[in-house]
Specification:
Layout lengths: L1 E6 L8 H12 L3 E4 L6 E7 L16 E7 L11 H4 L14 E4 L2 E2 L10 H5 L4 E2 L12 E4 L10 H11 L2 E4 L10 H7 L3 E9 L7 H10 L8 E7 L5 H14 L2 E6 L7 H11 L1 H6 L18
Parallel strand pairs: 1-2, 1-3, 3-4, 5-8, 8-9, 9-10, 10-11, 11-12
Antiparallel strand pairs: 6-7
Helix pairs in contact: 4-5, 7-8
Length: about 300
């Protein structure tokens, strides 16, 4: 078969689904390449992770016998067949990300947050779905995509696999700060951590005791490695958003503002995002009041 791959979200982040499909078909002797409008294919896979807010499918495929669309960006749909899901990814199709392994050790999340699709898509329990060797083979860095690793009953065993790999690990999707314990932090301290991400999504929930507790236990001393996603434009006021940002910074964390449904966000929320996420500005203009364009005595950076 002649297989075409189409990454709707662009190539700024590797598409794990397409990497597994590529490896699966190559193992069967099929020819696999990135889809081209002038080519001819037996089957084309279009994969889209993000929703309309971040990416749009403007590609019409008319040169294939079959077109298969999948991914969260297209809405609920079937998972990859097991024989594809558990195939070692074909990293060669994204040479710009060589040296990095991407994958899931667990799937699912018990939190069922209204802004997140994970609980509906993957289940309201976090369960182990793979061992590290399923997607890592000596790469220097691992980007872990798990939604809630610490909620998985097997998380200590999985963290130990990461530690024993000696790879640098980016816990890219966020660990649940409410599930931190002395035992699992002791294991995390054995991991060569590139970045650990947490999240403070609900402004009505005071997470400061958990963040302070982690600081007491962690061996990660560089605040730039301790990042926290701050969800905005989802039932929070600007004052609540700014409070979380400032509180995290003062505790020794590096906040990162996420805007829910960015087109509908008020200008001040988008300004807050630019101020916080541009770290050069964030550290040279310490007060948001001094960043807002047009404010008396302020500094214009917008």
């Amino acid at each position: 078969m002649r297989i075409g791959l189409c990454d709707i979200d662009s190539h700024n982040w590797p598409n794990l689904c397409l990497m597994k499909l590529s490896a699966y078909h190559k193992a069967r002797g099929d020819h696999v390449e990135w889809w081209r409008p002038e080519g001819r294919y037996d089957r084309v896979y279009k994969s889209r992770v993000f929703t309309d807010t971040y990416s749009q499918d403007t590609i019409t495929v008319t040169n294939a016998g079959e077109v298969v669309c999948g991914g969260t960006g297209y809405g609920p749909g079937p998972n990859l067949p097991d024989e594809v899901e558990h195939t070692y990814p074909d990293y060669s199709i994204y040479p710009q990300f060589s040296g990095i392994a991407y994958g899931f050790l667990s799937r699912g999340c018990p939190r069922n947050c209204g802004f997140c699709l994970v609980s509906d898509k993957e289940g309201r329990r976090s369960i182990q779905v793979a061992d590290l060797a399923e997607f890592w083979n000596g790469q220097k860095e691992v980007k872990l995509l798990d939604a809630n690793l610490l909620a998985c009953p097997d998380h200590e065993k999985l963290i130990l696999q990461l530690a024993e790999s000696r790879a640098y690990v980016d816990f890219s999707q966020g660990l649940d700060i409410r599930l931190i314990t002395p035992d699992n932090v002791a294991l995390l301290n054995r991991v060569r951590t590139k970045t650990v991400h947490f999240a403070w999504d609900n402004p009505d929930m005071d997470l400061t005791p958990y963040f302070r507790r982690f600081l007491e236990l962690t061996a990660i001393k560089n605040f730039r490695k301790r990042k926290v996603y701050v969800l905005t434009n989802y039932g929070s006021t600007h004052e609540q958003d700014l409070y979380r940002v400032e509180t995290l910074r003062h505790m020794g964390y590096d906040p990162y503002v996420m805007v829910y449904d960015r087109p509908s966000a008020p200008p001040i929320t988008r300004q807050l995002q630019r101020w916080v996420n541009n770290k050069r500005i964030f550290h040279t203009v310490p007060s948001f009041a001094d960043y807002i364009p047009g404010r008396m005595g302020g500094v214009r950076h917008a």
